[in-house]
Amino acid sequence: MAGKGPRVIEGASIAARDGRIVFVGTNEECAAVCDAAKSIDLEGRLVTPGLIDCHTHLIHAGDRAREFEQRLNGVTYEQIARAGGGILSTVRATRAASEDDLVHQALPRLDALLAEGVTTIEIKSGYGLDIGSELRMLGAARRLEHERKVTVCATYLGAHAMPPEANGNADAYIDEVCEEGIPAVVSAGLADAFDAFCERIAFSPAQVIRAFMAAKKAGLKIKLHADQLSNLHGARIAAEHGALSADHLEYTDAAGVAAMQRTGTVAVLLPGAYYTLRETQLPPIEQLRRHNVSMAIATDYNPGTSPLTSLLLAMNMASTLFRLTVDEVLAGVTRNAARALGRLDEIGTLEVGKRCDLALWNVEEPAQLVYRIGFNPLHQRVFAGDVAPSPSGRGPG
Ligand code: DI6
Ligand code: FE
């Protein structure tokens, strides 16, 4: 697939030099212009850009299996959160973990994603909620780049939940995020973007706006967890402040969609959280489509509401639960996911000049990637031109 719409080129060749794509076209055209030092015959396999998981909370300690059980017994996510469980139980475990612990606990989750052809992942902080712990989470996220062949985009989710020591004073906590947290992560060079959770159980629109202003002033891009559980007009607020993306969007209204269209804010859809929470309110897919808002799909991997480390399953859910087409799903984990990270000039499509991040699949057509459930047809992953050993252990060719 290359160019504007997802487009399948039959009998295609891709050439790369120094980690970048230098040719995409037909085999015949390639034979005329390419002088390959090394070539691999993919025997008709489908090649897509390396997949991009543009919204995860991959770094944390502990898990929330108990809480999962409570929810099965009828307790709601909101009730658990208000009783000091939920996000805060992960905060306690994460604060107690070293950076090494955080890296080691995240690696199996990362490996599950890489095994499905993911080459770029966004990772948020937000389970530390004090400056030291947030920096440790972001440091651990960055370290994953040294442990594996993957690009990590790190996001400071300083306004995820209120830390217990804030004693319910959200305004004072937001002051701390603005005056100390943002400057600390920026001077450590540990974050590309800032994110917040705009919700009744988290932060109000006014508080989010205050944090956005500080983040933008410090040179961070912004994103927002918007309208997931109720409509606080998060999508509109995100768009009006120039956010790269507004994520979740189950309760977004027409004004929110229109605002996103005006500013080109990407809609990041997270069917894993929708599924886990047994949500019934669908994001406004048809309106997003009609307004040409770019839609991305991500796992939202987190221990509470989306313990999902399969982007392929998120893709299947996006089609079955949200009714996205195959083309929309593929764009959602490639081009539009790149856009949601502000990296479309670098990754997300197969175009000359971009990094040669590829997923090579044991399928012939894109629909086969989306419709299977619990099956991984990855043949090989290519990161910056580097062919990783295939998941089955077979070499290339
Ligand atoms: N929305 C979510 O779904 C997650 N965070 C957020 O802002 C939940 C995080 C958790 O429950 O640990
Ligand atoms: Fe999230």
Topology:
Blueprint: E1 12-17, E2 20-26, H1 27-33, E3 46-49, E4 51-53, H2 65-72, H3 77-82, H4 87-95, H5 99-114, E5 118-124, H6 131-147, E6 151-159, H7 170-187, E7 193-198, H8 205-217, E8 221-226, H9 234-240, E9 245-248, H10 254-263, E10 266-269, H11 271-276, H12 285-290, E11 295-297, H13 311-320, H14 326-332, H15 335-340, E12 358-361, H16 367-371, E13 378-383, E14 386-387
Parallel strand pairs: 4-5, 5-6, 6-7, 7-8, 8-9, 9-10, 10-11
Antiparallel strand pairs: 1-2, 3-12, 12-13, 13-14
Helix pairs in contact: 5-6, 6-7, 7-8, 9-10, 13-14
Written overview of the protein:
It is a single chain. With about 400 residues, the chain is α/β, with parallel strands linked by helices. About 40% of the residues lie in helices and about 20% in strands. The protein has helices spanning about 25-35, 65-70, 75-80, 85-95, 100-115, 130-145, 170-185, 205-215, 235-240, 255-265, 270-275, 285-290, 310-320, 325-330, 335-340, 365-370; strands at about 10-15, 20-25, 45-50, 50-55, 120-125, 150-160, 195-200, 220-225, 245-250, 265-270, 295, 360, 380-385, 385. The strands form three sheets. It has an eight-stranded parallel beta sheet. A four-stranded antiparallel beta sheet has the order 3-12-13-14, with no helix packed on it. The site of 3-[(4S)-2,5-dioxoimidazolidin-4-yl]propanoic acid (DI6) has 13 residues, from helix 4.
